[in-house]
Amino acid sequence: MACIEARGLRKAYQTTVAVDGVDLRVEEGRILGLIGPNGAGKTTALNAILGLTAYQGELRVLGREPWKERDLLMRDVCFIADVAVLPRWIKVSQAIAYVAGVHPRFDRAKAEGFLAKTSIGRGSKVRELSKGMVAQLHLALVMAIDARLLVLDEPTLGLDILYRKHFYDSLLNDYFDRSRTIVVTTHQVEEIQNVLTDVMFMNRGRIVFGCSTEELESRYLEVTVHPEQAVAARALKPMYEREVFGRRILLFDGLDRQQLEALGDVRTPTIADLFVAVMSNQIGTAQGAAR
Amino acid sequence: MNTESNAVRETPLESQLFTARAIPATRVFCWCVRREFWEHRLIYIAPLAAAGLFLAGFLIGLIHLPGKMRSAMALDPAQQHDVITQPYQFAELLLMTTMLIVALFYCLDAMHGERRDRSILFWKSLPVSDLTTVLGKASIPILILPLLTFAITVVTQFIMAILSTLVMLGSGVGSAALWNHLPLLQMWAMLFGHIFGFHGLWYAPFYGWLLLVSGWARRAAFLWAALPPLVLGFGEKIAFNTSYFGRYLEYRFSGHPETVVYIAGNLNTEQLPHLGFFHLLSSPGLWAGLAVTAVFLVAAVQLRRYREPM
Question: Is ipTM beyond 0.90?
Fold first, then answer.
């Protein structure tokens, strides 16, 4: 069974279409990065998956319809939203007690264990904690839940690089075990590149690109072209071309590595490079269509 | 590679076994109520503070008690009764007023606060239904506050009676007159019916309405709560020159004629109204009110489901 399965998922607000017919299938045990510019519809799509918003189209998460069964779904699904959402008045001890009280799959000892590694006091209120500590607390609560799907929407927004690194490290080392599925959105793509098993780009409410990171590594190659080879390289129809310090860098899809090595230095593009390429082509196509 | 695929197959089975340990709905509900106490500490601080201040005032007033009792002896029994029971009435009035004010402010903030600070996203990330959450919030003004106020009033009046007895024994007046006019247990039985029946159940539609508006309004919830009834009342007056709506509201506020706006002092054994709490339970007005409350709460549940945080 797929963890998330969407067909024709659509969500329109009064004036805008936030999600415009998304087809999506996420298998269990994957770590999917959902990447897109602001306003691409990532958060809306995640909200639909979490049962926080009504939608059109077909959507099944762990076999359930999120909008109809949010409370049941939340036994198996956890999420951290894009803003600090722990209530500011709550004490750390109260937050633990409450989650332990209402969540059948919460392991209190585990949460206490995670917190023991931090400097968060049990008696302090969330409003007294720093931004990074609040994120640590929320992560400790979430990681102590034996969930099958974890959704993270910009979980590290506004945190400094040490916290961000630590956040993803603990997620990978202490939480992920291949039976769980994680969906994460972030603008700091490069920081989670090695964490992901799959990547999806979203733009204007649609999924414009999707593949596994393995496929990404084998399929896409970036060549820093020797100036004298520029014409030959362009003849191979790169999907994107950019200039860095006067050197042309071309991105190719599905070409042979050896063939490209003749043209210049070849390397695997980062997700960020690929994202820029895909998005620029999108804009190009859109402009072409407008003409 | 093999071990990995095995692990993937095993885990869902394990998780299914784990899910079997579901938490009973009543326990989840209790946690919801508990979290309201954490968030809105006024629920218990306000009545406790009111009771404490009142007792402090009463303690100072005790100096005059022996003199007051001596002069009361000269009065006829009805006046004696009034003199003796007056402070107990004041205690009840003060605590009930406090309760109503707390209930008003609580209801206006209950559904609003979690959207304002976006913590609703945290609450919704837990396996607690919107219905349970809203019922937990509604139970505060309808059940919890009346019970709490009743308990605090009983303790306050008990302390008052004990202190008075001690002072009067000490001053040699004797406490017989005091206890003759102070049937505490009966007073408390009546008070329970009044607070729980009238300020809890009879007023439930008001609380339901306030909760609904608090879930709906982006700001100025109080204004939105007060405006529609006003507009309806005046609109009806202008359009039809009638005031059914206004009179109905007044009736909901001041109570069924049979609910007997009870104050401790009016309690004489011979006029002990047989119309107390149980009579209220059999009045159609109460049940109609509870039905309206249910409609408001269902709407509040739907609002909480559909509305996104501010």
Answer: no
